[in-house]
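Quick one, T. Sequence first:
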Amino acid sequence: MKKLALIAAALASATALLPVAASAAVLTGSTVTLTPVFANGDIRPDQTATVGAGVEFPVIPNYGGVVIDVGADYVDFAIRPTTSFNSGAFNGFLFSFSGLTLSSPTLISGPSPVSFFVNSDNQLAVNFAGQSSAGATTRIGITAEPTLAAVPEPATWSLMLLGFGMVGAGLRTRRRSVTFANA
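Structure tokens:
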């Protein structure tokens, strides 16, 4: 019994110390938040959707000419024939994905926006300022990886090891039977 408990504690410790493999994750299943930003700096209310089958943002208030679909590793912008974007510093969209770190956006197909990049807030920024891409679909590929939790502090490790020691010490003590004298 003691050996089994010690083996279980050793396995739990070893598992906790193993590095987590960082593999490329897909966007499917994550929560995406879309923030439309107008050329005059006006920011519209955020919209939120879960990435999956179907179009995530079929109607965007005051951006009626754009339908946005987020796929496993891309963002599609279907721009209706009567749509054009006003000139300005930024006139486009910001995308945030929960629990993911974004990197490496690339143009896959369609007319290129003025710019697209991952900003300092870990958002995909897509700028269409001054463009008339009417009737076109632009697809931007995006790479995402899961956001990893921080490594525990040394004090946390010491408390965890102290807890394992106390469990081990508790398992080592013998159970003593107590008898009461009747008076």
